[in-house]
Design brief:
This protein has eleven helices and 19 strands. β4 and β5 form a beta hairpin. The longest helix is centred in the middle third of the chain and has 11 residues. The relative contact order is 0.17.
């Protein structure tokens, strides 16, 4: 990353990568069922009042423990490709490699924040720890198992001062995996395609909370609803639930199990590389694990370079629909079709394994293709090299492909 990259971009970069789902960070809200049976008796509020309460919250200092559980239903081969399934330890100290692992399984995190310039996120899975620390103009990643350190410096950070500084960074620089930031990203994306209401009250991390419920108005979305538990006193989102339109357990669960709104101690954000640790300095686009988009990940499979269009592919992108029914149509400019690869006796076995993992073959007016299915995002790759992807059902993708062939 370039030295003059803004801190807000730096922190956003370490959110769950778009490649995990393929689209829409707004749909990657997370959820745990930590509410006690029988919610607390709280004064009635409207949905508008609850949204305003979240927006008006001035809390920028907190610490606590959170749990994130994700069940996207990714094929095993895709889970490995996107960084999941390996626990938090090992590999490298690059933050993208570690935070990507939130796309799979259950993880426990320790979170601390003190304003726009200091946050710390520590993965607590297993005996080894991984910490991501933002302190002023420094961002550190430390993997205790491999004893590797990742570092990026940003001289632009902290230049804003006074009252405006806090407002400028208030949303973007909270811990990237915190329920607070996730909820705000969802609310920013909610528009005329969303029904917003107030659900039952709850208790989260020992605190009384209201629940804001967002439901897609449109048909065809894989998302049934998003439920955000909001602290009744502070307005801080404590928990977010992403529920599938097909029912079953939440697609993703994230929320505090413990939370304290006192100012964390200054040494919480201090970091000095341990003696003997391997240090990697981040550079623009060159850090290990950097993925501009899902195609770069797909191209890592031998034999798929031509299929995905390679470095000289067209990469034309068209957005179809809106809101929860948004579909991205990508013309990869591929030199090969899926059928070409399927029939190629000399194609590497890894490429064939990837095709097998994509799932069912489908056909329509657009021709033929294959669908990569998860509980949240589906992707249709047509034989002529086009990709339709969105948090929508397979039927919705086929309809879009037929209408835009």
């Amino acid at each position: 990353m370039a030295a003059n990259t803004k801190t807000s971009r730096k922190v956003a970069r370490y959110a769950v990568p778009v490649a995990v789902a393929g689209v829409a960070a707004a749909t990657v809200a997370m959820v745990p069922a930590f509410a006690n049976a029988g919610g607390p008796d709280l004064p009635k509020v409207t949905a508008q009042q609850l949204v305003e309460k979240i927006a008006a919250s001035e809390v920028q200092q907190l610490s606590g423990t959170a749990r994130i559980s994700t069940d996207l239903g990714l094929p095993k081969i895709a889970t490995g490709l996107l960084g999941g399934g390996g626990g938090v330890a090992g590999g490298s100290a690059n933050p993208e490699d570690k935070v990507a692992q939130l796309a799979n399984g259950t993880h426990t995190l320790r979170i601390a924040a003190d304003g726009p310039d200091r946050q710390r996120l520590t993965f607590l899975d297993g005996k080894d720890e991984y910490s991501l620390i933002h302190n002023g103009d420094d961002v550190w990643g430390y993997d205790s198992k491999s004893n590797e350190v990742f570092h990026e410096k940003n001289p632009e950070a902290g230049k804003a001062s006074g009252k405006d500084a806090g407002k400028e960074h208030k949303t973007g620089d909270r811990p990237a995996a915190s329920p607070q930031q996730m909820a705000e990203e969802i609310l920013k994306a909610a528009g005329t395609t969303t029904d917003v209401s107030v659900g039952d009250t709850a208790q989260v991390a020992g605190r009384d909370a209201y629940q804001l419920v967002l439901k897609p108005k449109q048909s065809g979305s894989t998302v049934g609803s998003v439920q955000i538990a909001v602290d009744a006193k502070t307005g801080v989102p404590l928990r977010v639930q992403l529920l599938s339109s097909q029912g079953g357990k939440p697609i993703v669960d994230a929320g505090f199990t413990k939370v304290d709104f006192a100012k964390p101690s200054a040494d919480t954000f201090a970091f000095t590389p341990p003696k003997g640790a391997k240090l990697t300095e981040g550079t623009d686009g060159a850090a290990k694990g950097d993925k501009d988009n899902a195609f770069k990940a797909l191209e890592s499979f031998p034999g798929l370079e031509g299929l995905m269009g390679g470095p000289n592919g067209k990469g034309d992108l068209k957005v179809l629909g809106e809101g929860w029914a948004t579909i991205a149509r990508i013309d990869s400019g591929a030199g090969k079709s899926l059928k070409d690869l399927e029939n190629d006796k000399n194609a590497p076995k890894e490429a064939k394994q990837f095709l097998d993992s994509l799932g069912d073959k489908v056909n329509g007016k657009f021709g033929e293709g294959r669908v990569l299915s998860t509980r949240l995002v589906n992707a249709l790759i047509t034989d002529d090299g086009k990709v339709y992807v969105g948090a929508v059902t397979k039927d919705a993708l086929v309809k879009a492909a037929d209408a835009n062939k």
